[in-house]
């Protein structure tokens, strides 16, 4: 057993094999271990003799193991050094360069359009006081928009803080911290408990606008929004107001622009890849694309935010940035804007 063991140990060519040899020849079930266990059954004379021989054999095997282990470890180390050498002089591909996200560049473009008109860019937190998100905007405690259906509450058991459901609380913040004239725009992230599908997402982006001054009318609103639309989509695109309702504006409207793909016909043109479908895919046959809500600031909001409603009037709007980007770039699935796929992002480069 001793010679066989030593031979097997010497024959091991790597640490794995040595481990197997150790298990077989020096483990609990090896021939030598078993023989050792049988010594007790021998007569006393033979016991002494056998114990000595087995002890020597085990010593020799352990020595052989230790020696082989050392040799193989050194070999292993040397091999790793060779195999893992990095040739720093080899040419490499450059790391792929990412790109700024279209929502970022799009928000900046929109902000620039307002800055060019002399407006300020305002900001507010996404985790917002319930009072600013709702009450200050004339959305009373019983308003349906305050129910759990639309709103992410920071703590559902303890109302008071919400993930803002729109950028409109920035209106309230701006009125509370500034004195008229106020001209602010605020692009930002908003949250609602919506499904996640091709046209909805629980997180999306709006751009809020607020103008407070003496003599502001609905006409100023229309002119400003027309300028925004023509800056983003090209001159001469028709827009329309549809009557609507928001507690914080009165009167309120929904603003649409003519679908620039079918030019308002609602029919598929063929060059949008839907030649066999009857209706335009961009506006779904409507001929119009909805951009968002707007209106003349409700005097109750002015008063709640400390503005003299006798002297000042204002207009406000809140448009969906993601929607505008989808129309502008022919993005068919809203989710592309939220999944962070660099192939999507880099397709825009840094232009928008
Ligand atoms: N906050 C409204 C919304 O999220 C949009 C809006 C903003 C309407 C400002 C009127 C004035 O739908």
UniProtKB/TrEMBL annotation:
Asked whether the UniProt record includes Magnesium among its keywords, one would answer yes
Q: Which residues bind Mg(2+)?
A: 250
> Which keywords fit this entry according to its UniProt record?
Aminoacyl-tRNA synthetase, ATP-binding, Cytoplasm, Ligase, Magnesium, Metal-binding, Nucleotide-binding, Protein biosynthesis
- InterPro entries hit by this protein: aa-tRNA-synth_II, aa-tRNA-synth_II/BPL/LPL, Phe-tRNA-synth_IIc_asu, Phe-tRNA_ligase_II_N, Phe_tRNA_ligase_alpha1_bac, Phenylalanyl-tRNA_Synthase, tRNA-bd_arm
Q: How is the cofactor bound?
A: Binds 2 magnesium ions per tetramer.
Its main localization is: cytoplasm
Q: Which reaction does it catalyse?
A: tRNA(Phe) + L-phenylalanine + ATP = L-phenylalanyl-tRNA(Phe) + AMP + diphosphate + H(+)
A Pfam family in this protein?
Answer: tRNA-synt_2d
Q: Where is the Aminoacyl-transfer RNA synthetases class-II family profile domain?
A: 112-326
Q: Can you say where in the cell this protein is located?
A: Cytoplasm
Q: EC number(s) of the enzyme? A: 6.1.1.20
Q: How does it assemble?
A: Tetramer of two alpha and two beta subunits.
Q: Which family does it belong to?
A: Belongs to the class-II aminoacyl-tRNA synthetase family. Phe-tRNA synthetase alpha subunit type 1 subfamily.
Q: Give the protein's recorded name.
A: Phenylalanine--tRNA ligase alpha subunit
Species of origin reads Nocardioides kribbensis
